[in-house]
């Protein structure tokens, strides 16, 4: 299982890994060094890729800037990904050989996994922890907040967006093309070309997505979450006044340091006289947390438990938080910042399950106006969420994903009885032991 250093992505992979272990598989995580501490399951074997100075510098930039916000943020995020993909392609073949790996399940954010799988002849399954990067021509790029528009005007706009996207992704595309050539795989233009040719799992259910073409290899399984009972903590057991609206606000683990945005949210809630809980995921200092005018300011909390009690959620538009809101029927105000969050916000608006305001344009007054509408018309938003909530409940989550993986592996085994496929002869300069820069725990 190959995953980048994003906390919410790793949580989904952990749950899927456990589901596969129950079905009799041995599971190994291959992660960037800085992601090792994000794994909570002690019985999962981890192989970490040694981080170079340039990669660690990129990680510090990502944490400082919140990643993916603005033109510079996008360029830094793409440069980080390009370095990580280059490192993965250098190191991963030796790991796969030495551990006799039979198949790869990879986050869509790491295109190198698709290249290595094709090079080694291994079954490969993609998992979209964020919005799927596969798309129809009528579907805007995930990092854009454009609406779905299949008219000729919309298609022309999307073609322009694709050209801009290629410009932003040029470093990553060069790395992909270079390693495809070195591995003897033929042309691979971009990360979409590195997706699994047989199965692409997605946490995004179809009724919350834009329309996708027939014949897609995308299999929506819904949120991949554990079935554990919500933890009872002093925060989840807090006394909430039932006569006043309760708003839960979180900007996730990557964006949780944004004090100024939290302050705008808190100021808006003050004008509405609502009860506000802010969960900053360790992003704020104790001094910053103490200065926020919210009733409760916490670092971490059982998010799903709090969302089930909230009247409205204010979120950065991260897919995992949004899916959690939809699963419990909670309307939301999204304040997208970077990555695929603008695309998630566009889907919130498309389906009428909440509001969305770009974080850079959000002011206390605009936030207050949006929250006021969500609270006053909550029943209408909840009604529109209902069919999405039902599909999430029936999608299957980790169980459905594990069953789909098993079907792919069974098919691959019937086609090729070898335990380990031989590497592509066109790339035999990558001999075992040449790039042995990894550690096991």
Properties at a glance:
441 residues, 6-stranded parallel sheet, 15 helices, 4-stranded parallel sheet, alpha/beta, globular, Rossmann fold, disordered C terminus
How would a textbook summarize the main sheet? 6 strands, parallel
Please list the strands of the largest sheet in the order they lie side by side. 9-8-7-10-11-12
H-E order: HEEHHEHEHHEEEHHEHEHEHEHEHHHE
Q: Per CATH, what is the topology of the largest domain?
A: Rossmann fold
Count of distinct structural domains: 2
Question: Rounded to an integer, what's the Rg over CA atoms?
Answer: 22 Å
Q: What is the 3D shape?
A: globular
CATH class of the largest domain: Alpha Beta
Low-confidence stretches: 53-64, 418-439
CATH architecture of the largest domain: 3-Layer(aba) Sandwich
Kindly report the average pLDDT value. 87
Percent strand: 5-15%
Q: Say which CATH homologous superfamily of the largest domain is assigned.
A: Glycogen Phosphorylase B
> What's the end-to-end separation, in Å?
15 Å
Q: Can you tell me about this structure?
A:
It holds the Pfam family UDPGT. InterPro entries: Glycosyltransferase_28, UDP_glucos_trans. This is Zeaxanthin glucosyl transferase. Keywords: Transferase. One of its GO terms (molecular function) is UDP-glycosyltransferase activity. Strand 8 (275-279), helix 9 (286-291) and strand 9 (296-298) form a beta-alpha-beta unit. The strands form 3 sheets. This protein has a 6-stranded parallel beta sheet with strand order 9-8-7-10-11-12, with helices on both faces. The protein has a 4-stranded parallel beta sheet with strand order 3-4-5-6. By secondary structure, it is an alpha/beta fold. The protein has 2 domains: 7-222 and 396-440, Rossmann fold; 246-394, Rossmann fold. The chain has 15 helices and 13 strands. 45% of the residues lie in helices and 12% in strands. It starts with 6 loop residues before the first helix and ends with a strand. It has helices at residues 7-22, 53-65, 70-98, 112-120, 152-168, 170-182, 252-255, 259-272, 286-291, 303-309, 319-328, 341-351, 364-376, 378-395, 397-415, and strands spanning 28-32, 45-49, 104-107, 124-128, 200-202, 218-220, 246-250, 275-279, 296-298, 312-315, 332-334, 354-356, 438-440.
């Amino acid at each position: 299982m190959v995953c980048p250093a994003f906390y919410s992505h790793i949580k989904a992979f952990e749950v899927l890994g456990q589901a596969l272990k129950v079905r009799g598989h041995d599971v190994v995580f291959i992660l960037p060094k800085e992601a090792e501490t994000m794994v909570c399951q002690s019985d999962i074997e981890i192989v970490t890729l040694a981080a170079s100075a340039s990669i660690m510098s990129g990680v510090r930039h990502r944490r400082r800037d919140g990643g993916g916000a603005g033109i510079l943020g996008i360029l830094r995020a793409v440069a980080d990904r390009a370095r990580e993909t280059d490192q993965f392609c250098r190191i991963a073949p030796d790991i796969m050989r030495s551990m006799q790996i039979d198949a790869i399940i990879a986050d869509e954010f790491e295109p190198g996994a698709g290249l290595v799988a094709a090079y080694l002849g291994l079954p490969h399954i993609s998992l979209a922890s964020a919005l799927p990067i596969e798309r129809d021509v009528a579907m805007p790029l995930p990092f854009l907040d454009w609406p779905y528009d299949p008219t000729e005007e919309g298609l022309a706009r999307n073609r322009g967006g694709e050209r801009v996207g290629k410009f932003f992704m040029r470093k990553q595309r060069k790395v992909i093309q270079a390693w495809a050539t070195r591995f003897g795989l033929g042309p691979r233009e971009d990360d979409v070309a590195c997706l699994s040719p047989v199965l692409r799992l997605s946490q995004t259910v179809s009724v919350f997505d834009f329309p996708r073409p027939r014949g897609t290899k995308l299999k929506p399984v819904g949120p991949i979450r554990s079935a554990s009972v919500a933890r009872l903590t002093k925060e989840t057991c807090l006394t909430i006044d039932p006569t006043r609206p309760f708003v839960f606000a979180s900007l996730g683990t990557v964006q949780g340091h944004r004090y100024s945005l939290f302050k705008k949210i808190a100021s808006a809630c003050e004008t509405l006289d609502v009860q506000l809980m802010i969960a900053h995921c360790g992003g704020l200092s104790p001094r910053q947390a103490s200065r926020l005018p919210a009733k409760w300011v916490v670092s971490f909390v059982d998010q799903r438990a709090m969302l089930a009690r909230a009247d409205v959620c204010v979120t950065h538009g991260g897919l995992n938080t949004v899916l959690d809101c939809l699963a419990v029927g909670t309307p939301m105000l999204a304040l997208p910042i970077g990555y695929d969050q603008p695309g998630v916000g566009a889907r919130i608006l498309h389906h009428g399950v909440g509001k969305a305001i770009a974080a850079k344009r959000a002011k206390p007054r605009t936030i207050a106006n949006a929250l006021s509408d969500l609270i006053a018309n909550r029943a209408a938003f909840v009604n529109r969420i209902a069919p999405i909530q039902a599909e999430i409940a029936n999608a299957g989550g980790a169980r459905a994903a594990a069953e789909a993986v098993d079907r792919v592996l069974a098919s691959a085994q019937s086609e090729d009885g070898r335990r380990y496929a031989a590497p592509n002869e066109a790339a035999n300069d990558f001999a075992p032991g040449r790039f042995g820069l990894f550690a096991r725990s």
